[in-house]
Amino acid sequence: MLGSLREARATLKQARSNTRPHWWDAELDRTEGGLLLAEGRPASDAEQSYQNALQTARRQHAKLWELRAARDLARLWRDQGKRAEARELLASVYGWFTEGFETVDLKDAKALLAELA
Fold it and tell me: Over its length of 117 residues, how does the chain's per-residue pLDDT go in tens digits?
């Protein structure tokens, strides 16, 4: 499995090596955060990737990417015992949406918000 994780990180690096900026940069940062956790790297490394994803998504006004980054960061914070911060972050992004509540991303965010309540 570690080999697969390394291959995934190499693919992310290759995707980043093209001229920037890309509309998918936030998603690359979010994905990298998950890979770092899967590799057993420090949670602070993953948190930085998630924070980068949030900043990029906000700068690009990419609400779906922002939701995904907020959800993953909220999960990390939940696991670290930062439940109030996790809920506040995710609720602020989730509250922006007015439709699409049947999508997997919004269903997942809603379930996590309920868990954090």
Answer: 556 877 877 776 776 666 566 778 899 999 999 999 999 999 999 999 999 999 999 999 999 999 999 999 999 999 999 999 999 999 999 999 999 999 999 999 999 999 999
- The CATH number of the structural domain formed by 2-116 is 1.25.40.10
CB 87 within 8 A of CB 74: yes
Torsion of CA 37, 109, 83, 56, to 10 degrees: 60
Q: What is residue 108's three-state secondary structure?
A: helix
Q: Where are the domains of the chain?
A: 2-116
Q: Where are the alpha helices (DSSP H) in the chain?
A: 2-16, 25-38, 43-60, 63-79, 83-94, 104-116
